[in-house]
Amino acid sequence: MLRSAGATIVKKQKGGVMGVRGFWETQVVPRLIKCACASPGIMELRAGVVPRAQGRVFEIGCGGGLNQQFYDSARVTAFAGIDPSGKLLDYAREAAVQKGWKADIRQGVGEDIPFTDESFDTVVCTYTLCSVQDPDKVLSELRRILRRGGQLLFLEHGLSPEANVERWQRRIEPLWKPMMGGCHLARAVTKPMIAAGFQIEHPGHQYMPKMPKWAAWMEWGTAIKAG
Ligand SMILES: C[S@@+](CC[C@H](N)C(=O)[O-])C[C@H]1O[C@@H](n2cnc3c(N)ncnc32)[C@H](O)[C@@H]1O
């Protein structure tokens, strides 16, 4: 272990050194996320949402590749996805290769999506709006790239409807967020979608069993690009 300018250096990389924080964010967080997001209960919820994707499909925050197995190749004519995390993108690309289909998976952020207006029939967004920097900008970008009448299939964790749980979410969030790749615990799920011009259909919600309530509130459904 090296020490430099007060920072603990744990690993020497090709072009320089990586501090503890960098190591945590680029190596540990992706593995934690992949593991936490693959619990049997969460995979079951994915199985209820993702197979409804059809036509030209875009997945925001596709890193980890956990949704790949749920896409119905017979219904999807083209697949594209973006994610900012190099490590999670590696997992996503591996999953796409295993699925055996052509996937346009790129590094990028939802606040600035590198696709033209109205170029997708379906957007898939699972456990990603909790982590983006600017959810309103992301929703406006998702609306932009969807064709009129196109569907945003979502599955997110977020703000509990119970005031006492919300209080715990707001207490824990400042500790949780820096450890978990910027994940917010207390973001409303559907309210900003409606504000962005989507109509919510087939909404569902539940607390995930065997999880602390402050992390367990799940919401899913279809948000249609109205007008
Ligand atoms: C909790 S993980 C969920 C991963 C995947 N969507 C899933 O369902 O398993 C959050 C994901 O959001 C990605 N992310 C963070 N900020 C983002 C942004 N600004 N735009 C797009 N994706 C982002 C992270 O890299 C990570 O892959």
Protein architecture, described:
The protein has 227 residues and is α/β, with parallel strands linked by helices. It has one domain: 3-Layer(aba) Sandwich (Rossmann fold). Helix content is 35%, strand content 31%. The protein has helices spanning 20-36, 40-49, 86-99, 135-145, 163-179, 190-195, 213-216, and strands at 2-4, 7-13, 16-19, 55-60, 76-83, 103-107, 120-126, 146-157, 198-207, 217-225. The strands form 2 sheets. The chain has a 7-stranded mixed beta sheet. The chain has a 3-stranded antiparallel beta sheet with strand order 1-2-3. A hairpin with a 2-residue loop joins strand 2 and strand 3. The model is unreliable at 1-15 (pLDDT under 50). The site of S-adenosylmethionine has 22 residues, from loops. S-adenosylmethionine is lined by residues 33, 37, 60-61, 63-64, 66, 83-85, 88, 109-111, 126-128, 131-133, 181, 183.
